[in-house]
Amino acid sequence: MKNFRLRFKNSLSFDRLSPLQMKSSFWGLAVLMFLIIASGTNAWAQDPGGQDTVYVYNSYAAIDESQGGKVRIEIWIKTDNTGFNNDIAGMTVPLIITNSNPAANPVLDTTVEATFGFSAVQLFNEIQHNVSGDPSSFPVQTTLGAFTQQTGLTAGDYRFATLVIHLDDTTTLCIDTITIGPAYLNLTLGSSADYIPAFQSLCQPVSTYPAGMPPSYFDADSPVDLIVIDPNNDSIGVSFNTIDSAFYDVINDSISIYSTYAGEYRIKVVLDTLDQSGESTYSISARIDGTADVVVANNLPVPDTGEVHQIEIQNVPDSNSIGCFSMPGDANADDVITLSDPIATVNYIFNKAGCDPLPICWLKGLLCRGDWNGSDTVTLADVIRAVNYVFNKPGGPWNAVQIGPCCL
Hints:
- The chain is mainly beta.
- About 10% of the residues lie in helices and about 35% in strands.
- Strands 4, 6, 8, 9, 11, 12, 13 and 15 form an 8-stranded mixed sheet that branches.
């Protein structure tokens, strides 16, 4: 059995576990790590190709000038590894985060969901964010780690983790690697050999945006082009832009809008006629302010020439609604619950023709709009609940459950 070492506060070593063993709780794993003292002897290796890099990235960070808010700073891994057992199956990234303004009162979110949600390692067998001390006492030291029993990361550029930090005021946040006890920066190959990558640090100034006008980000990074239309009917695409403070990144097919308005944003998806990747599906994520990326399209078929897919989300920029893109149960995205919503949900379930791309178009791109009972699936049980709500049938409550971005 291959030996794998994940270095956190204790320099511990443990075998790659069976799937049954992996179902044990976090605390069971913690006890295991504590009991198995560093008895493993992982071999040290040269990087299989050119030097890999762990780097810190943020293109823009700002908080609400009156309420404060969250900023997101990403940790990426760039590798050119190929070949048998040269995949990156594990990584340990200890960090130190400093803050230039004590009045900013920074607080680091240490939850796994915030740190690793929508990352390249979110489905790894083990992911951990271990902070040393109080996450509100800066400078703060923390260690990010992950490993998988399956094939790990091969040649590419991957978002490994996201540091989510709540701030009350402007500041400059600096992120660098550090040795925390026996925990140090290293990557582990599928062969169980360790090596040390390069590291690129970052100092990120954090500014403010006008109250109630948070920045928004839309990212496709796939063989499509995006068009975003704001509540004022201004728009931005690859070759045009009528939205102030908006920018299109052609390489990543992403749109950044640094000053938004309350109301409906329409995301249109068209074929990128210059794309040579051969990919047949696309995914889109959206983010408002410092909230987590929300997948608003997942592995949908690429539009044909002349075909347009459309996703509709709501921007309600108050401190309780940032990151919420829709009312729960509002299948047709018209901001009211009527009989038309369960009808649209039935159309989704039975894949009825009439819009593109089927069937998610009947829910305007967000599955949670039809998920009345919060089960992460849309079935006839949701339709029955919706009809009961519309007709105020006794025996409720029948209201739609808030889930994911359907939380307005």
